[in-house]
């Protein structure tokens, strides 16, 4: 039994297919199937029940999988620690990003990081601030970029404030407000909105502002992707409230300052519980480019 066989078993279990597992592992299917068959003979157990159309873990395979994952994780940690001992950063870096991040050019930061640490594998997850903060607390993410109402603070994680930005109204080019120099929440309350799902921090920024002003509004469209939000605005279906810095990259819409609009605060968060060498190296790269992050 070796680590590669365990990786193959894990790939088949996760993809549900020998073909897709072979593609993920960059081997031909016959070689992957042969290695797994050898492992099953060595164990004296069938790990997968398979037909020409279906692959499923057996009871023995279900029992084998957690131990295989633990072995692979232990091997990964040993490799990372050994590399760190001689000054080389390896392993995996998981980064969470909100759809409207603007304080940091994340692709540019990753470019700088990869130039310095090419042996690190990077995983990106886009989500809401509460989901990403939970991912950092639970260890599924190493760092995350969040956007919160100015009254909120990230909980259970290390945090650095990156920037503050006031939300602006985003309207279609033919909308009556497109020619306005400024608008207030009372006027916006007359409009139909597209916004992030209720209960998310991205939505809370606007909800709290309207509630504080004693105003209600209609949110007819709830979406999780900022680009879809702006496409709905372009069609004239609704208006939106988005951070001013983010809207600099949005075309074919008009942004209007909101006199009493809400403020969004961007944060960088990470866990100080045994951060990986890759995490510390990424924080170093961010700090070197923007010392206020340190």
Automatic annotation (TrEMBL):
Pfam families: HTH_1, LysR_substrate. Residues 1-58 form the HTH lysR-type domain. Keywords: DNA-binding, Transcription, Transcription regulation. InterPro entries: LysR_HTH_N, LysR_subst-bd, WH-like_DNA-bd_sf, WH_DNA-bd_sf. Belongs to the LysR transcriptional regulatory family. It comes from Streptomyces cynarae. It comes from the Bacteria. PROSITE patterns: HTH_LYSR. The keyword Transcription regulation applies. This is LysR family transcriptional regulator. Transmembrane segments: none annotated.
């Amino acid at each position: 039994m070796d680590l590669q066989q365990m990786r193959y078993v894990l790939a088949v279990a996760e993809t549900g297919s020998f073909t897709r597992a072979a593609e993920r592992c960059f081997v031909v299917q016959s070689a992957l199937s042969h290695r797994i068959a050898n492992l099953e003979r060595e164990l004296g157990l069938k790990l997968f029940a398979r037909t020409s159309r279906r692959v499923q873990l057996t009871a023995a395979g279900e029992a084998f999988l957690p131990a295989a994952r633990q072995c692979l994780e232990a091997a990964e940690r040993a490799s990372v620690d050994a590399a760190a001992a001689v000054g080389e950063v390896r392993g995996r870096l998981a980064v969470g990003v909100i759809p409207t991040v603007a304080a940091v050019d994340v692709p540019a930061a990753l470019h700088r990081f990869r130039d310095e640490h090419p042996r690190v594998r990077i995983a990106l997850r886009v989500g809401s601030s509460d989901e990403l903060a939970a991912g950092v607390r639970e260890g599924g993410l190493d760092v995350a970029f969040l956007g919160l109402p100015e009254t909120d603070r990230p909980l259970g994680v290390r945090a650095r404030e990156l920037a503050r930005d006031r939300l602006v109204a985003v309207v279609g080019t033919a909308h009556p407000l497109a020619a306005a120099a400024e608008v207030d929440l009372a006027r916006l309350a007359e409009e139909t909105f597209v916004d992030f799902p209720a209960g998310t921090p991205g939505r809370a920024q606007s909800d709290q502002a309207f509630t504080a002003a004693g105003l209600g509004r209609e949110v007819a469209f709830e979406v999780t992707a900022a680009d879809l939000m702006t496409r709905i605005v372009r069609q004239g279906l609704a208006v939106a409230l988005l951070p001013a810095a983010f809207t600099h990259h949005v075309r074919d819409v008009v942004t209007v300052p909101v006199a009493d609009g809400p403020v969004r605060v961007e944060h960088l968060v990470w866990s100080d519980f045994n951060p990986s060498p890759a995490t510390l190296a990424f924080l170093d790269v961010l700090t070197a480019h923007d010392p206020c992050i340190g």
